[in-house]
Design brief:
The chain has about 625 residues and is of the alpha/beta class. It has five domains: about 10-120, Signal recognition particle alu RNA binding heterodimer, srp9/1 (2-Layer Sandwich), CATH 3.30.720.210; about 125-155; about 165-340, P-loop containing nucleotide triphosphate hydrolases (Rossmann fold); about 350-420, Helicase, Ruva Protein, domain 3, CATH 1.10.8; about 430-615, Peptidase M41 (Methane Monooxygenase Hydroxylase, Chain G, domain 1, Up-down Bundle). Helices cover about 50% and strands about 10% of the residues. Helix 12 links the parallel strand 9 (about 270-275) and strand 10 (about 315-320). The chain starts with 9 loop residues before the first helix and ends with a helix. Helix 11 (about 250-265) runs parallel beside helix 12, helix 16 (about 380-400) packs across helix 17 (about 405-420) and helix 18 runs antiparallel to helix 19.
Length: about 625
């Protein structure tokens, strides 16, 4: 049986001191009366006191018989009768001494025994020093213990690793819980085999890679894959993030790295997993602060540990990042993180497999088609698909359904992609007509162009933060390349909403702001990155500084002249104008169908793809 630890608390000491003081006051202290100096002198003259102890500032002594009655008579005028009655029970008294040169003569004249109290004794001196020191030591010991046993080891354990250790029975994740990343699973099976049977590789002289770097966009399942490797190999799993190494104190990160590898050697064979290693392994020398900062010291210690430990002990290091381009090259060289495993966005079959994993614990209706859901979720990663399944289950529960139906999944996908419906948002009739015309223009242009993605739904129900309506297109297959004509069609579809507003209302609104932004980005990329401009030729302008797996753009260095910049602007403007005129031509030719679709949207608010096809046909 595990013995329970007893923790010291400062409150225990305070309560004990209070109990001792109360016990002394009520049980050990003698009954004592406090009298004034004039009352004391009156008692001296009548001989009612004895055995006096005279100190420098006080006088203590015993009350002789009849003293209490004398004091009661002297205080007969007081309102507090209880205090007067209490005097009869007192045996000793206390009084504050005053400067009185005749006191000794009066005491001798009345034959009252008295002694002088020494000003300080050795015991008093000792207690005056020992007691405060004892209290200070007790308080200091309490706080010292709190620092040692506080959260995550406390201040005294600041150099200890913050890795969470999952033993074999705690991981409970295998490759059955991972889907859509078959290539990555195959790459990692060799690591599992080494952890299970290292003698098989060592007998042939082979060396397992020291480090495995999982690279991919956020949400693709890198951490889940690392846990699955530990679960399949049935070994301990030490997990922590790259940011947990770095602290404000110099040298703490390096100490934690050393402690991490020391723990790993004790638990070998095991897996060390460092999530978001880009927080720790960023390339050195790019910090604006002069000298070597704390993060670089930690990285240097990690590189040293990677070179120092022996893989024969069965310690495998895995790390994950979505920013591989900023990692230090010394971290990626052979002998360290020399095996890179791509965990990319899943394709159509991968999304279907991921959805099957997530719907295991959900009661789904017979009408749910996982293939249709996977086709509708192009570009989503594993975390997005898990969110879709969870949203569908919540919607079904909110509507008191016994099973999750296909309509719940459809609404969940719309909620994840376009945002929450804003049914309470009130818009005027004029604005609603403009939105209906705008979305109808998008849909009609998309259905008129041969290389545009099929239209799945058109809606004028406000969603998200600023979307007053949306037109949803679903590609028939996953695409990895796009031609110039396909990009032109995409720009034309984006500009179809603004064109329909200009045709119907002879003016444009602010609703096309996001469409113009996307169209301009595509057109500029065609000119500056893809070399699709006839005037400028097959050239790229400016180095691209786009992260590999993040949809953000970093500031680019301008490596061309002002004349070239003017030509780039002209070409972008020419592409946008040509696509805009093309969209207006299509909408002018199909003006009747544009009006019919706008009216239908005003009536129904949502029009599905099949109904759109019948209307246009």
């Amino acid at each position: 049986m595990k013995q329970k630890k007893i923790h010291f608390s400062i409150w225990y000491f305070i309560v004990a001191m209070g109990v001792l003081m109360l016990f002394q006051y009520f049980f050990l202290a003698q009954q004592q009366a406090t009298i004034s100096y004039s009352e004391f002198k009156a008692l001296v003259r009548e001989g009612r006191v004895e055995d006096l102890l005279i100190a420098r500032d006080s006088i203590r002594g015993k009350l002789s018989p009849g003293a209490a009655e004398t004091l009661a008579k002297m205080r007969a005028g007081e309102k507090d009768k209880t205090a007067v009655a209490q005097l009869a029970k007192e045996k000793t008294f206390y009084s504050v001494r005053m400067e009185d040169p005749d006191l000794i003569k009066e005491l001798e004249a009345n034959r009252i025994k008295f002694t002088a109290q020494p000003e300080m004794t050795w015991l008093t001196t000792l207690l005056s020093w020992v007691v405060p020191i004892f209290i200070f030591v007790a308080i200091w010991g309490y706080f010292l213990r709190r620092m040692r046993t506080g959260a995550e080891g406390g201040f005294m354990a600041i150099g200890k690793s913050k890795a969470k250790v999952y033993v074999e029975d705690e991981t409970k994740i295998t490759f059955e819980d991972v889907a859509g990343v078959d290539e990555a699973v195959e790459e990692l099976k060799e690591v599992i085999e080494f952890l299970r049977n290292p003698a098989r590789f060592q007998s042939l002289g082979g060396k397992i890679p020291k480090g495995v770097l999982l690279v991919g966009p956020p949400g693709t399942g890198k951490t889940l894959l690392a846990k699955a490797v530990a679960g399949e190999a049935k070994v301990p799993f030490l997990s922590l993030s790259g940011s947990s190494f770095v602290e404000m104190f110099v040298g703490v990160g390096a100490a934690r790295v050393r402690d991490l590898f020391a723990q790993a050697e004790e638990k070998a064979p095991c897996i060390i997993f460092i999530d978001e290693i880009d927080a720790l392994g960023k390339a050195r020398g790019i910090s604006p602060v002069s000298g070597v900062d704390e993060r670089e010291q930690t990285l240097t210690q990690l590189l040293s540990e990677l070179d120092g430990f022996d893989t024969k002990k069965g310690v495998i290091i895995m790390a994950a990042t979505n920013r591989p381009e900023i990692l230090d090259q010394a971290l990626l060289r052979a002998g360290r993180f020399d095996r890179h495993v791509l965990v990319d966005r899943p394709d159509l079959k991968g999304r279907e497999a991921i959805l099957k994993v997530h719907v295991r614990k959900v009661k789904i209706a017979p009408d749910v088609d996982v293939k249709v859901i996977s086709a509708r979720t192009v570009g989503m990663v594993g975390a997005d698909l898990a969110n879709v399944v969870n949203e569908a289950a919540l919607l079904a529960a909110r509507n008191n359904k016994s099973q999750v139906e296909m309509s719940d999944f459809e609404e969940a996908i719309d909620r994840v992609m376009a945002g929450l419906e804003k049914k309470s948002r009130l818009i005027t009739r004029k604005e609603k007509e403009i939105v209906a015309c705008h979305e109808a223009g998008h849909a009609l242009v998309a259905m008129s162009l041969p290389q545009a993605d099929p239209v799945h739904r058109v809606s004028i129900i406000p969603r998200g933060i600023a979307a007053l309506g949306y037109m949803l297109q679903l590609p028939t297959e996953d695409r990895y390349l796009m031609t110039k004509s396909e990009l032109m069609d995409k720009i034309t579809v984006l500009l179809g909403g603004r064109g329909s507003e200009e045709i119907n209302f002879k003016e444009v609104s602010t609703g096309a702001q996001n469409d113009l932004l996307k169209a301009a980005d595509i057109a500029r990329s065609m000119v500056t990155e893809y070399g699709m401009s006839e005037a400028l030729g097959p050239l790229t302008f400016g180095r691209e500084r786009r992260p590999l797996f993040l949809d953000v753009m970093l500031p680019q260095s301008k490596e061309y002249s002002e004349e070239t910049a003017r030509q780039i602007d002209d070409e972008v403007r020419k592409l946008i104008n040509s696509c805009y005129e093309r969209a207006k031509e299509i909408l002018t030719e199909k003006k009747e169908k544009l009006d019919m679709l706008s009216k239908l949207l005003l009536e129904k608010e949502v029009v599905e793809g099949e109904e759109l096809k019948r209307l246009v046909a």
